[in-house]
Amino acid sequence: MARDQIDMTPLNSRDELVGWIEAGVKPPSEFRIGTEHEKTPFTLEGHHPVPYAGARGIGALLEGMQLLLGWEPIMEGPHIIGLHDVTGGGAISLEPGGQFELSGAPLDNVHQTHAELMAHLAQVREVATPLGIGFLGLGMTPSWSREDIPVMPKGRYKIMTNYMPKVGSYGLDMMYRTCTVQTNLDFSSEADMVKKLRVSVALQPVATALFANSPFTEGKPNGFLSFRSEIWRDTDNARSGMIPWAFEDGMGFERWVDYALDVPMYFVKRGDQYIDVSGSSFRDFFDGKNQKLPGERPTLSDWANHLSTIFPEVRLKRYLEMRGADGVPWGRLPALPAFWVGLLYDDTSLDAAWEIVKGWDASERQALRDDVPRLGFKARIGNRFLFEIARECLVLAHAGLRRRGRIDGFGHDETRHLAALDQILDAGRTPAEEMLEKFDGAWRGSVEPAYDEYAF
Known about the structure:
single chain; 456 residues; Creatine Kinase, Chain A, domain 2; nine-stranded antiparallel β-sheet; 15% strand; globular
């Protein structure tokens, strides 16, 4: 997330919390596609982590990007921590370990997403290369320990760093060592939101397998194809997971609000200060019972910021966020929005996808999600391998994109952005399995070649 919200409108009723989310409803003609991707910076010489400070640090990179783009700087105290395009709506931000994130503008089609990505990467390279900085397109840093990685100067990350070890084994790994690509999509009504949420939660393991790209930890195979996905199984289960209640009768905006009210908070921001309220519920805050802020009630900013700290496989804010994919090299990034747009923005494909998943119960969905980080396409649900389901989904995505009929300047529709996924399924193995084969062969037991082959 590029920056925390600033709207001090006081909240007085639960209906206002529901209304804030419901305001995301829009007609299909106004549906947009938002793509967020993270990439790990490294020094071109030696492949080390990049510190924030210094003439060749992350801060200098952001300052150079500001001069190049003319975007508005996002500051925290004296530190530049991001950039915002006030015209187009895009933003650049920093994850805890310096992972460089582009939060793309809301765009009409996947061709525009691809063009935005290409422009961003050209701009980043123009500034980063003279600083001796490169970027890696993997789901997890392949060679560094947690202790190797610098901490970015953001107040919310200090609070999260202190809190994470209290609630899971892998929270710090998630914060400092992983990267993801996400797609954000719209809904036209409460019922449309529920259907899209259920389909995308159930099929998130398909995206995890297609984008599985984190098989190494500290220079060695870690036993997983997507260790980033495995990390989320023991990060903070009070705010992550497969949200089985979303498949129960009565699911809607109000049910999400009731869930979010009981998710533990991290912080409350007042001015430039982050107040540590970690572990307390938003419900108590809403009732004026927060021990750190006795008698004080939340604002719209507090609600929006709190929703940004909830991490299920699919997250609802004023749009739906698909959260199951590892970070990948640039050539595969547009495939994620193409996949989900083809499935969810075409009613025929959405109905067919629902037919695939509607018979799965909560325990089956959970077992699939638990197995896929290690097994990838070999995970099973019922009597079917995930590979079969992935093939079915890709057929539906192709059909949905064809029916959308968004044509680029060369006469191609959006299905061209699925080519990377077609190749993965044709090969019958995840990207991680391809890397492990290289590790055992041409890479001769070293992950160092990844910094060349999977660099942006």
